[in-house]
Amino acid sequence: MICAISGEVPDEPVVSKRSGLLFERRLIERYIEDHGKCPVTKEDLSMDDIVPVKTNKVVKPRPLQAASVPGLLGIFQNEWDALMLSNFALEQQLHTARQELSHALYQHDAACRVIARLKKERDESRALLALAERQIPASMAGATPAAAVSNGKRAMEEEIGPDGKKIRPGINPVMIDELTECNTMLSAQRKKRQVPPSLAPIDALERYTQISSHPLHKTNKPGILSMDMHPSKDIIATGGIDTNAVLFDRPSGQILCTLAGHSKKITTLKFVPRDELVVTGSADKTVRIWQGSEEGNYSCIHTLKDHTAEVEAVTIHATQKYFVTAAKDNTWCFYDISTGSCLSQVGEASGQEGYTSASFHPDGLILGTGTTEAVVKIWDVKTQTNVAKFEGHAGPVTAMSFSENGYFLATAALDGVKLWDLRKLRNFRTFSPYDSDTPTNSVEFDFSGSYLAVAGSDIRVYQVANVKTEWNLIKTLPDLSGTGKVTSAKFGADAKYIAVGSMDRNLRIFGLPGDDQMDDDTKPSSE
Fold first, then answer.
1. For residue 21, what pLDDT is reported?
2. How far is residue 93's CA from residue 112's CA, in Å, rounded to a whole number?
3. Which one of 75, 315, 439, 475 is at 20 to 30 Å from 4 when CA atoms are compared?
């Protein structure tokens, strides 16, 4: 009598009424308790179906091998060999399982790459389709004389005047009233504004270090040339030599969208948060307006071709209804964002000099421009006339930034940074942080007007003071790209971090260690 489970002679034999099979009692009881079935036939089985078998109690004879020490050693040797063989078989199975897992992971990674490529091709196809759908009605309407619209330009704007220039509609009195009203409101608000208590203190900035680095652009064409931050969302936009603009969500560390359409490097870009727009300017002489969708994708709604040379700067008016572009053709254009139409083009096309930077004053009635001839020009937006000139720089004016207090203008060029008092129209301080061969590429006040960031071969943060007192250097952040050229540096909300772009493909975030996720509740708004 052999147990159907263990294959040995049972001590307490029992038999199943259903199948007639013999089992060891303790083994079948445990199996029925766990599974409720016969271990051999898999039929339902309970302890009521088990009948004990009564046998005579006999003493089992000891195996012959166990009767001597050499026999016992032989038994142990056989069991050890069986254990080693079993262990070897298990190791082979583990190795096979690991190979299968590695192959499955490789297939999964390849599938993810294919899916990502297909998604990118789908998004590009959708963008091209949307562009074609917009261009087809425009081309069909091209035959009608007055209301024809093509790429954001009215046909009437294409009329050529007697001097050979395109006739522009100009900034009408209604727009001027709107600009003046916005200026009055913002000026009144500025006088009441206090430095927010959530602003990062000086001792925090002194401890800033790199907390993350994100490769956003292509490896074959590295270089981030421009950067902007969304004023209410923690989103950073970068423009690169690879002709793409990338929208990056800092808290999640994910790329939200890539804006592809320019044929040459993107030199400047700005957010227009009111309508979820992005405006980009490029060395291909065009400006593009991109519209965001609820899905997070952006499509080009206007391509503006009013300049005849590289577009170097885009700046958004405080109303978020208008913007200005400045280019190396020595002209700047005033645009209506909603229609993409050029209302006014100021300047004479020149091959010798041109504009390299531009920025609206926070109140919106003054425009600052920097030229290749090291001159800073101040313009009255209402009349489009040059009301002041600041001279003294060496080399092209690469960047400019108005302080939120409305009194200071910082400009950057080959010889460093100059600070200008707009009330007295004079230079009151000069920083020359680098040698004569290293240009200063970026200068930026934070939103509160408390700090100033200067970028060249590294990033230097100064404490903003006044005309008479010294502006102290708080922190020098190294250029970790290895290129020796930092192109842009911008403060995050409440100066809780600094975003840096260099001539490699990485966007770098500097802040307090372990503080790479900031609270979004106290972010300032540009409105």
1. 93
2. 28
3. 75
With tokens 């401890």, the residue in question is 207
Give CA–CA dist 214/227, Å, rounded: 14
Q: What's the CA gap between 367 and 179, in Å, rounded? A: 12
User: Cα(329)–Cα(353) distance, rounded to whole angstroms?
Assistant: 7
Instruction: Provide the whole-model pTM.
Output: 0.66
- Edge-to-edge strands of the sheet including 355-360? 355-360, 366-371, 376-380, 385-390
Q: What is the pLDDT of residues 129-174, one digit of tens each?
A: 988 887 776 555 544 433 334 444 444 445 565 555 677 888 888 8
Rounded Cα gap, residues 367 and 346, in angstroms: 12
Are 303 and 309 in contact, with CB atoms under 8 Å apart?
Answer: no
**What is the distance between the alpha carbons of residues 248 and 492, in angstroms, rounded to a whole number?**
13
So what's the pLDDT on residue 140?
59
Contacts of 273 (CB under 8 A, 6+ apart): 230, 231, 232, 233, 320, 526
Q: Report the distance separating Cα 193 and Cα 363, nearest Å.
A: 14
Task: Residue 190: name the closest of 429, 408, 484, 35 by CA.
Answer: 408
Torsion of CA 17, 22, 25, 31, to 10 degrees: -80
Answer whether 194's CB lies under 8 Å from 447's CB: no
Classify burial at 384, counting beta carbons within 10 Å of its beta carbon; exposed 0-12, middle 13-18, buried 19 or more. middle
241: tokens are: 């030599």
